[in-house]
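pinging the channel bc i need a second pair of eyes. not urgent but kinda urgent?? the chain im working w is below, pasted from the shared doc
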Amino acid sequence: GDYYDFFPLADGRWGLLIADVSGHGTPAAVLMAITHSLAHTYTGPPAPAGLLLQHINRHLTARYTRTAAAFVTAFYAVYDPATAMLTFVSAGHTLPRWLRSAAGTSELLPVAPRLPLGIFADEIYPERQISLAPGDCVVLLTDGITEALSPEGEPFDLTALERGLQPPHSTAAQLRDAVLLALDRHTHRQPLADDRTLLVLRRRN
């Protein structure tokens, strides 16, 4: 199951968490609810960003995933509107795309590769940081999108995703809709086998 959330932080900053729980059905839904609860009960400092994932990871590993053979991939970002800096950490999650408006390019965010949550209790999640220029977008998604199959069995991989990311997109909503349209065309609107979550962050000015 998929999960996402927003966190108002100090000094006008915002936290954004997207996660994907392994498995399906009731066990996945329960683990998703636990992950949500752990994220909202974190009372530690907001920086570095990796501390939130370490908090969730320690509790999942100690109490919930050790015997269930389950895990959670996650990506957590903190955006500061005053500086346009995006600080982020990843726990084995599908890599977000960074669309650079001025250059007209799209690239993967430079995340530090780390294990998903719930596997190794002492895992550390080092943060990375980028500066968003006006018009830049960051596209967050789960593997329910990138692994969606065409009728011929081909996944919606980066090549197919890039077609949906092509400009012009003047708003985050337009970019979101373009990706979903490309996904519908790829799958011929067939029911998807997994949950799908797509979030778009855009710096307006």
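so The first helix runs from residue 25 to 40. and The CA atoms of residues 3 and 173 lie 19 Å apart. — does that match what u expected or am i reading it wrong
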